[in-house]
Amino acid sequence: MAIIKLNPAFKDYLWGGTKLKENFGKKTDLDIVAESWELSVHPDGPSIVASGQMAGKTFPEYLEKAGKAVWGTKGNAFENFPILIKFIDAKGSLSIQVHPDNEYAQRVEHEFGKTEMWYILDCEPGAFLYYGVNREVSKEEFEAKIYDNTVLDVLKKVPVHKGDVFFIPSGTIHAIGEGIQICEIQQNSNSTYRVYDFGRVGKDGKPRELHIQKALDVSKLTPSESDFKPCGPTTIKDDAKATMMATCHEFTTYVTELDGSVTWNVDEESFGSVIVLDGSLSIEANGEKVELEKGQTAFIDANTGNTTITGKAQFIYARV
User: Fold this and answer.
1) Which of 308, 304, 315, 305 lies closest to 290 in space, CA to CA?
2) Nearest-5° angle of CA 155, CA 160, CA 166?
3) Would you name the residues annotated as active-site residues?
4) Which of 78, 94, 95, 237 is the most buried (most CB within 10 A)?
């Protein structure tokens, strides 16, 4: 069973900034880095293997050669690899958008739906995002507000702080506001329906496409309640303190503070993924060792067994 380091695919969407290069060591010729797809098999941006015998190959090529056993028994319940992990730097606001659920996405887009979670890495003072509607809205009223450019009036505006956690089920209208950097763990999907885009134009000088009818089909128009904090308990093991942030059918995530060493069992049920938010660490199992710095990501095969993580770092651990 292997541990591999991954290099990301980069996206230069118009709202992106330079924080991922400046604060997380991302190396790319792109001037703007809106997103880095850290653990991805999606054809729109697969990650690249950065260590081991398959260094230089894509992450999908690694998984194809390794076989579905490395996904784990819970991972094998999915036809396609279940998750995608990103860093996002929103220098400007993202569009108001919504993602479909599995049934709609598979029928219309021929891929998974998209439930996701965000961990706020950092933000400018006064930063906010949109999360759902602020009152119950009929589909007819929502459509009218989209067309007359007043849709922001019925959206819930939420101030954000470093360390906040947002769980965003499919169907939840949302948008990341300007001045926010996040780590996003999501279903393996790129199906996004844009509702409102602040009148911006793309690189071609034309307004970016909206997907109003699809958005009306899938949007939840009743308020969603949350305290925007981790959902689960905090567990102290060895020299690590791990707090469950979110859990759903496709993923469970933990934010972990490490000062020393901790040994976890990467069992037969699921692969593990480690993404370093601060500091540095090493991951070691079965005589194999990978070193990670701030901003770097590793994939650990399911059934690797006892895996020791050593260092002084904050990281997110994700699994099915």
Assistant:
1) 308
2) 75
3) 194
4) 94
* 227 CA to centre of own chain: 19
Q: What is the C-alpha separation between 132 and 172, in angstroms, rounded?
A: 5
pLDDT tens per residue across all 320 residues of the chain: 699 999 999 999 999 999 999 999 999 999 999 999 999 999 999 999 999 999 999 999 999 999 999 999 999 999 999 999 999 999 999 999 999 999 999 999 999 899 999 999 999 999 999 999 999 999 999 999 999 999 999 999 999 999 999 999 999 999 999 999 999 999 999 999 999 999 898 888 888 899 999 999 999 999 988 889 999 999 999 999 999 999 999 999 999 999 999 999 999 999 999 999 999 999 999 999 999 999 999 999 999 999 999 999 999 999 99
CA 192 to chain centre: 14
Name 93's Cβ contacts closer than 8 Å, sequence gap at least 6.
Answer: 15, 175, 176, 177, 178, 198
d(CA 216, CA 214): 5
User: What's the CA gap between 318 and 316, in Å, rounded?
Assistant: 6
Q: How far apart are CA 47 and CA 60, in angstroms?
A: 8
Q: What domains appear along the chain, each with residue ranges and CATH number?
A: 3-218 (2.60.120.10), 234-319 (2.60.120.10)
